[in-house]
Design goal:
alpha+beta, Pnp Oxidase, Chain A, 5 helices
Length: 161
């Protein structure tokens, strides 16, 4: 495996400029847009952290199967797909089929990534509900106006390609 931290700049640039994809679901992979995430080393290994609102279809998929892939598009690419995956639910459509995205073959028993992206295959080894209680009121008002809280997933990195 290549050094997972050598990709931190690509991840942070993507998150800051439109987002990356979080792919979950073994039977029919679903991609959602994420704007938050972290690469770090904890519990003696490389980890990817992602946050998913509890109302999202992806949350349901991760409850069934803890594997996921973060797909990082090259700058300026996948703009339409990032937009659609950020507002449409996989409950209602097959985003890969509708958007013409090509799923990759997982490299280490994970979930497919997206062809043309940098893919980080992960397996969640822990998750935790992130309550809004205790956050600054301005942040609650801005990020959680409807109370739709996140779950934080700690994904052990299985492969990068």
């Amino acid at each position: 495996m290549q050094n997972e931290f050598s990709y931190a700049k690509e991840l942070l640039d993507a998150l800051a400029s439109g987002g990356a994809f979080l792919v979950a679901g073994a039977e029919r992979p679903n991609a959602m847009t994420i704007g938050w995430g972290a690469l770090q080393r904890i519990w003696n290994g490389p980890m990817m952290q992602v946050l998913v609102r509890q109302s999202r279809y992806t949350h349901d998929l991760l409850d069934k199967d803890p594997r996921f892939t973060v797909a990082i598009p090259k700058p300026g690419e996948f703009r339409k797909e990032i937009g659609v995956c950020g507002v449409k639910s996989g409950r209602d459509m097959d985003k890969f089929q509708e958007l013409g995205m090509i799923a990759t073959t997982p490299h280490n028993g994970g979930i497919p990534g997206i062809d043309g992206c940098l893919n980080i295959e992960c397996r969640s080894i822990h998750n935790i509900h992130v309550p809004v209680k205790g956050l600054p009121e301005a942040l609650i008002t801005k990020i959680y106006p409807d109370g739709d809280e996140h779950t934080l997933y700690f994904g052990e990195i299985l492969a990068i390609y």
